[in-house]
Amino acid sequence: MLDRASFPRDKVCAEYLSPQASRILAAMGAMDEVDASGPARLTGMRVRAPNGCEIHGSFVATHGYRAFRDRGIAVRRSVLDAILVQRAQSAGARLIERARVTDVVRDGSGRTCGVSVLDADGATQELLAPLVIGADGLRSVVGRRLGLTRVSRIPRRVAFVAHFRNVPGVSEVGEMHVERDGYVGIADVGHGITNVALVVTARAARDSAGDPDALLDEWLASHPHLAARFAASERIEPVRTTGPFASSTRRAWAPGAALVGDAADFFDPFTGEGVYSALRGGELLAPFAAEAALADAWASDRVLAEYERARREEFRGKWLVEKLIAGTVAVPALINHAARALSRRKEMADLLVGVAGDFVPPSQVLRVGYFARLLLFGV
Ligand SMILES: Cc1cc2nc3c(=O)[nH]c(=O)nc-3n(C[C@H](O)[C@H](O)[C@H](O)COP(=O)(O)OP(=O)(O)OC[C@H]3O[C@@H](n4cnc5c(N)ncnc54)[C@H](O)[C@@H]3O)c2cc1C
Question: Which of 107, 151, 361, 147 is nearest to 246 (CA)?
């Protein structure tokens, strides 16, 4: 494993994990350590629309679906990612930190056979491998060099994230506040710390004149229902930013290489389960990667094409739901309408939160009946 960072490291993220992510953490043998680190445990999500209507969805509900755990967790990425790195190391992986991958190396036939790495001393070397896995996040250098990843034009958004202390009213329910000029997620991440993650358009971010602290503080202060809460709280670190983040991937493999996690797909973080998708993607890729790494070129390509099919099968429904949610959130009239409907029908909100939480099949909300009720009850 090569990483340009050294661990523990932070990652700009709202730090909420869907209830079903615990299944994979348990399978990796990481759950006990995550539990011991003192994460927050969330019972559901609350979404406030620009018109003030609120949607409350609970993980434990009457729809009959149960997650691996009844609660989602929220844990600082500096803690979670260090635990994951340790699990990989104790399973036999070797980690080289402060090693920046700058390109892929190809053989005479154009097939990927390794990567170029710039190490901490500024020296460049080539490392060869039977299979390169690009798990290098949103701006994946592996994906870009292989021509698999494209930066999309819309929606171009930028995130501003910081940890706060003493935010009044923070509870066991994750919060999402959608406004006309962006949305903000607020969640307890344990130890009295609250994660605040604001997403605005790239244009609004440009207008911040390069002062992310001021942008986040002023945005919170400009929305009366949040202003009072944040006036009493303390931001404990400088605001970190990431973006613009709109990218898409043609496919998640090329001869000799596979992509996983954000490198393979990145969605608007509103539904907040990129970590689950990255973990599930890794779980899905593992057997294909093991087989492809040992196979000859022809057989390896066939195996990686099967990985692509498995990914599509696994994520297709969720991708569609995420796109529909992101589209709804981007149009105030739509999110207002949906919030009116879902605030009247808790069972529909529970289903949607269950789909976002990765334990209710997406087909449950992709039915004509669900959309018809959404239209009807929002009037
Ligand atoms: C504002 C925001 C809020 C979010 N909130 C949530 C949330 O609440 N819940 C959730 O589940 N998801 C959330 N996400 C999404 C989530 O952060 C990602 O989906 C998740 O981190 C993907 O994991 P990954 O391992 O693919 O990539 P990353 O976590 O980005 O890890 C990539 C790793 O690759 C390394 N790397 C990158 N480039 C190179 C290189 N050239 N050479 C060597 N190493 C390299 C990096 O140092 C990093 O360690 C959010 C995202 C954003 C932007």
Answer: 151
Radius of gyration of the chain (CA): 21
Q: In b/e form, how buried is each residue of 309-318, taking b as 16+ CB within 10 angstroms? A: ebbeeebebb
Task: Of 201, 229, 225, give the one whose Cα is nearest residue 215.
Answer: 201
* 261 Cβ inside 6 Å of ligand 1: yes
Does the beta carbon of 137 sit less than 6 angstroms from any atom of ligand 1? yes
Q: Is residue 108 helix, strand or coil?
A: coil
CB 174 within 8 A of CB 44: yes
Q: Say how many C-beta atoms besides its own lie within 10 A of residue 206's C-beta.
A: 11
Question: Residues 201, 182: contact at Cβ < 8 Å?
Answer: yes
φ/ψ (deg, to 5) at 83: -65, -40
| Ligand 1 proximity of 268 Cβ (cutoff 6 Å) | no
For ligand 1, the distance from its centroid to the CA atom of residue 301, given in whole angstroms, is 27
Report pTM. Answer: 0.96
pLDDT digits (tens, 9 = 90+) for 231-274: 989 999 999 999 888 778 999 999 999 999 999 988 778 886 89
Residue 64: CB atoms within 10 A of its CB come to 7
> Of 262, 211, 249, 324, whose CA–CA distance to 12 is shortest?
262
pLDDT in tens, 49-89: 999 999 999 999 999 999 999 999 999 999 999 999 999 99
Q: Is the dihedral of CA 327, 329, 330, 335 positive or negative?
A: positive
If you take atom 31 of ligand 1, which residue's CA is the nearest one?
Answer: 137
Instruction: For residue 157, list its beta bridge partners.
Output: 201
**Residue in 10, 12, 136, 163 to alter for ligand 1 test, most ligand atoms within 8 A of Cβ:** 136
Structural tokens at position 250: 């043609």
d(CA 131, CA 258): 8
Rounded to the nearest angstrom, the distance between the alpha carbon of 246 and the centre of ligand 1 is 13
Q: In ligand 1, which atom is closest to the CA atom of 74?
A: 8
In testing the pocket of ligand 1, which one of 262, 271, 283, 358 has its CB within 8 Å of the most ligand atoms?
Answer: 262
Report the 10 Å Cβ neighbour count for 76: 22
Q: Is the CB of 136 under 6 A from ligand 1?
A: yes
Atom of ligand 1 nearest to the CA of 245: 53
